[in-house]
Every structure is written in C-alpha cells, then in structure tokens.
From TrEMBL:
Coiled coil: none annotated. It comes from Ornithinibacillus sp. 4-3. Residues 115-284 form the D-isomer specific 2-hydroxyacid dehydrogenase NAD-binding domain. Keywords: NAD, Oxidoreductase. Pfam families: 2-Hacid_dh, 2-Hacid_dh_C. This is NAD(P)-dependent oxidoreductase.
Length: 312
C-alpha cells in the first residue's frame, strides 16, 4: 500500500523542488503539499487524517494531544529544526509515533541575524531610518562593539559560533550555562546574575524547556547594566516582555533586537513606544538556504527511517 506523506505550511514552496522527492516517489511514497497558513485544529486533522507521515516546518503547526488522538494512521512526524515543544510528545509516544528532527541546520542564519541585530541596535538603525523617512537629517552617536563584553545566555552550537564571530570584533565573551560548566568551554562561564550585571550586550541562546520558561523575569532583567543592549533570537517565552518594555521605555537599556515573541504571530506590538528597538518576525531560520536544508534533511529522515524498518 502506498504511504502518504503530507507536508504542512510550506509557505515558501520549497519542498516540491527538493531532490529527495524523486527518491521517495521511487520508493512508492505519495507526497501532498499544503502551502497555506493553518491555524485551526480541525483543519490540521482534516489534512492529516489519511497521512502516514507528517512533515512540519518549525512551529507553524501545533499538534496537541487532542489532534493526535484523531490521527490514528499517523506513524511518523518529520520535524524541521531542533525542537518539538509544539507537539504533545507524551501523546505521540502513547500512539507509537516516531518523531525525527533535522537539528541545527539554521545555525549560520541565526548567528548572522544575531550580529545584524547587535549592529542595528548599536548604531541606532531604527531611529535613523524613522527620521530619514520624515526627511529629518539627525545623526545620533552610536556604540562601538569592540572592547565590549558580550554575555551569552546558553552556550550551545549557535552561541559558540556567535562567540567565534564576536572574537573577530575584539569583543570579550562570557556565558551562562543552565547545566553549569562542563569543561569544554574556551570562555568564562559565570553565574546568570554576573553575566546580566556585567555585560554590555546580552544575547539569548537558550532552549525553551519548562524549567527555563520565563527565566528572564523582572528581577533578572533589572540586573542588566544601564546602557546595555538585549538580543533575543531564541524564544520569546523565555523573557518577561512587560519587564523588558519597561526597561526600554525608561531608557535603562540602550536598545534591543527581538526576533521571537511570547505569542506568535505578533498581533499587538508591545514595543511600539520603545526607542531603538529592532523587531523581526522570527526570521532567524528563514533563509532560502536553511529552508532547502530543512526540506532535504526532513525528507532524508523519512528515507532513513524507512531503511531501518526494512532492516528489522
């Protein structure tokens, strides 16, 4: 019997042109693509009710326990990215659904965006652009990055590459690891409070796990140096947005670059009255190159799983 693969929310229409499609079709798979935005659980169930395998692009589609219970045919979820917080993993395990991830294929793009946001904040791109759009020629003094201290919250693969780039700017790098020092670091690993209170730039690179949700609360954010910059390309739910906005509006923080928000898509912008803030709509992973790698690896994961099943 032909196995059904359903790709959801491929907005950029990347998947049909992947070279892996021909390999899967040769093995007898049928692939259906849906390129539109899906928000209702009923539609998710309708689109996946005949699927043996679902391919999900980042957090664009949620698979709650209620949704999974209505998908008895689903055998595998090929998820892009390195996390699956939007999938009820307990229910998936109960149903015997295999979940695969593509891992950090977006790492270069996230690192580049992190530095883009740093530079945009340090040189006040947002107020300069706003003034020029109003035919005003005002030159605000910026901040040099060299000889500053960059505090990384988290020290995984992305943060390590950020640290390498920072060294080329002659930036001192320190970090906090939730798991503590492991001995493989080439930088100083400090307590969270010390990183926040001594860094000129704080950049968040933490995974959104239950124990870290809301870790950057008002108490922690208030420790940041006056005149410092806050960057978040990780997850919005790690941060108390209200507390961050207060620090920006009061002028305590020099600026902020935010790519992720507590609720996405962002309906009401809480930063609209904040000066020197650069906002992007969770585009850390959204480059053509990353999406092509997502497609290739997520489809390859299906082929690999198929091969393992044949060998049993």
């Amino acid at each position: 019997m032909t196995k059904q693969i359903v790709v959801l929310s491929d907005y950029e229409r990347i998947y049909p042109s992947s070279p892996k499609v021909a390999e899967l079709e040769k093995k007898g798979y049928s692939i259906t693509y849906h390129h539109h935005k899906i928000t209702e659980e009923a539609e998710v169930v309708s689109l996946l009710k005949e699927a043996d395998i679902a391919v999900l692009i980042r957090e664009r589609v949620n698979l709650s326990a209620d949704v999974l219970k209505k998908l008895p045919s689903l055998q595998m979820i090929s998820q892009t990215g390195g996390g699956a917080a939007h999938i009820d993993l307990d229910q998936a395990e109960k149903q015997g659904i295999t979940i695969t991830l593509t891992g950090s294929t977006s790492r270069p793009s996230v690192v580049e965006l992190t530095f883009g946001l740093m530079i945009a904040c340090a040189r006040q791109f947002t107020p300069h652009q706003q003034n020029l759009q109003q035919d005003k020629w005002i030159q605000y003094p910026g901040m040099e990055l060299q000889n500053k201290r960059l505090g990384l919250l988290g020290y995984g693969k992305i943060a390590r590459e950020v640290a390498l780039v920072a060294e080329s700017f002659n930036i001192e790098v320190v970090a906090w690891r939730p798991t503590g020092k492991k001995g493989d670091e080439h930088i100083s690993i400090l307590e969270l409070e010390e990183v926040l209170s001594t860094s000129d730039i704080v950049s968040v690179h933490l995974k959104l796990v239950p124990e870290l949700r809301g870790i950057l609360n008002q108490q922690h954010l208030n420790l940041m140096k006056k005149g410092s910059i806050f960057i978040n390309t990780a997850r919005g739910a790690l941060v108390d947005t209200k507390a961050l906005v207060e620090l920006l509006e009061s002028g305590h923080l020099y600026g902020a670059g935010i790519d992720t928000f507590e609720e996405e898509p962002l309906v009401q912008n809480p930063f609209k009255n904040c000066p020197n803030v650069v906002l992007t709509p969770h585009i850390g992973y959204v480059t053509t190159e990353v999406l092509e790698r997502f497609a290739e690896q997520s489809l390859q994961n299906i082929l690999d799983h198929d091969l393992k099943s044949e060998m049993k």
